[in-house]
Amino acid sequence: MTRLxxxxxxxxxxxxxxxxxxxxxxxxxxxxxxxMENAATIAVKPDPFDEALKLxxxxxxxxxxxxxxxxxxxxxxxxxxxxxxxKLYNRYYASSYPVKTKEVTDSNWKDAIGERxxxxxxxxxxxxxxxKGDWKKVVSLWVPRLAPxxxxxAAHGVIRTGHAIRSLERAETDxxxxxxxxxxxxxxxxxxxxxxNNNKIEVxxxxxxAIGTIPMIDQKRVSHTRSIMGKLEVVTEWEEFGSVIxxxxxxxxxxxxxxxxxxxxxxxxxxxxxxxxxVSMIHSVTGTAMLRSIVxxxxxxxxxxxxxxxxxxxxxxxxxxxxxxxNKVPPATDLKPADLVKRAVASNEVHxxxxxxxxxxxxxxxxxxxxxxxxxxxxxxxxxVG
Length: 386
Known about the structure:
By secondary structure, the protein is mainly alpha-helical. The chain contains 20 helices and no strands.
């Protein structure tokens, strides 16, 4: 199936799901609006997603899940909800943007990588880069440079980058370019490398086998923090984890690898999720699922490296989250995508929205119930906002 066919199939799938949602949650579709308006009117009409980005542009990146969730709402067929969502998000999560300290340039960027206090400097740098010309060239150059720090801010940097890329594939606007600059700047400032060594691995496994080889960190070592970033800091100091990056068999196609990774970590979520590690386990899925938006924009060798680091990050989150709890996997016989979309949209909860969209995207390509079961569980745990 071509990329265009995949996009068409995906939109048809999500459109079918969205159309069954109650009238209170669904406005006229963008396509329907286009049929009713002439081209001149459409050209001047403000784009709801762009307006939502403007509302959230001044929130500090570390606290700002809003643009990611808003983009996921668009993919779920609910562009009509994004402005309302952004206004609500501003009321609950607004935090001031950091100040600039020293300019990041093409010659000094290596000195600034991973410097969290340079966040505003990095964002300014990437906003200039994306405004210079072809944003795709910026992505193809910088994603490989940032890949070893895939775990930056618990993978939020890469997740936000993927959402920004996907929005630009729909339409290139100034505010979407700005969002890509913020996402890449976030990734660069919070760049964080997990331990890796060059020890030769005699046998490499597909994802569903490799997950069984991940060393599990003693939960007492991470019990002092509920922060995913804090737990990853502990893993960073754990030498035994260094061989994990070499355990995954990278011979399949990138598309197959992504499907295997998302299926494996969605399954791990179902089996081992608790009230304490729910959000952490969600990140092991969303952090790998977002590869689909980024991989097409990098060279083939760089894509495999990116997938290696995505695997490493998801494995670290899994190790730090713990697998002592083993849940009984419920059946998915009565779970319908349309109902899950309705619940996610109504929740206004950023992880619920992003996780639902990511899992349904994977479900469309890999029709196994694990994704629906994972969504259903997460929606039950995460609650709602507003």
